[in-house]
User: Fold these one by one.
Assistant:
Number 1:
Amino acid sequence: VQGVIQLWGRGMGEAMSSRFPKEVLNLPIRKRCSNVHLLHGAGFYDADGTPVAKLVLHYVDQTQHEIDLKAGEHLRDWWGSPSQPMRDPGTLVAWYGQNPYVRKMGPVSQHSIRVYCTTIRNPNPGSELASFDYVSLLANAAPFLLGVTVEQ
């Protein structure tokens, strides 16, 4: 990913729906892999367990798999406490810090901006992963993707 892929979510409001896509399709991978690692997060909140985005993995053998990314399991709003627990054992806070605005709200242990790393086991490691789609599920949260790494 070169830059950030910011998808639209209802928390942005309808006025922003023409500015941010609801999906980005056919992001190339072209590798066999055992795991896919996402560096990601979201703007705005949804209740834990709410699906906010999905990955659609496309393989050279013409199969595909869809993986829901859920609030409180794989990502949360990028503003909050870095110690807020995640339900998915493959997800952790990859980075947290403060900008001048957040610093005014209190200590970094309670008020941070944060980015998550989620490791997803490839459901079809025997086939080359050709590409993937990143799709908003039109929840309140507006998911973003900063990077993808595959592990062989």
Number 2:
Amino acid sequence: MTNDLARNLINAGVHFGHAASRWNPKMKPYIFSKRGMIHIINVRETLKGMILAQKLLADTVSSGRDVVFVGTKRQANKAVKAAAESTGMHYVTTRWLGGTLTNFRTVHSRIQRLEELESMANDGSIESESKKRASTLKRELRKMKSNLDGIRKMNQVPG
């Protein structure tokens, strides 16, 4: 199984690192070699990390706590969202908001504001505002929806 997974990782190009000139010396144990001016990442170390993460996730979820899937790169957005929705967990795909976990009370108040704005949009009270105020509220709703949509059902800090 791990051989197939390693082969799939290599076929996906996971082993290509960044430019050798931009490396951090703490990464030395995880670098397999250097080809051209690009570091090649050791796939064995990647597999060890993935197996460790799998065990940690299994322990966390089996104890009844939630998990947040985070993938803010464009290539990962759809995969992270699909995986989180299929497992019923929370996700962040556009932008990680600072303090999402450490200042959860504030983030939760912003989620409540998002729900308030959505209810205003549904009952049409935004349209009854002046054009400028309605535009401001719609913009706020759009930004909050993109940033908080995946964590809107998160009522407590995840495990």
Number 3:
Amino acid sequence: MFAIKQAISLPLNFEMAATSEMIDIALEVKPNAACIVPERREEVTTEGGLAVAGREAQLAPLFARIRDAGIRLSLFIEASEVEIRAAAAMGADIVELHTGRYCHDAAGRADELVRIRQAAALADSLGLECHAGHGLDFDTVGPIAAIPQMHELNIGHFLMGEAMFSGMDKAIAEMRRLMNEARPS
């Protein structure tokens, strides 16, 4: 991680669990941002994001260490009002909205897109930078990229799989094209 940070000119962002061990590593490396994600098996990201609401007392000291080090705090959460408000109250800079249900439930996709749009608007109104990710692919990225408050999309797994067949440059170029076409003018 130290070598990567020295070798790149772009911001380095961590995706990590809310554990003292992981936070110690982040404090040594000093990434631009630390995105806190579920770590336990019952917090599997395909089922949802990190539960912040109701765990504030447990998470507050860990999150404070990140913020006090000047690292942007990002929380990978469900697109729900209660989680977004909890993230804002905890001092998060960024929320990354979980898009797994939107991507994997074709029958409920339209309703889930409405929920994600509303969550992005709420996050923005509370001063949170809004990101999204999990399960996005060529077929699902457009409507999420079109959300005006969306600043960043995280699409690693699909791109790596697609790159095996078409090459990394082509996979990224196609994803970028689809995202650009979807963005509001």
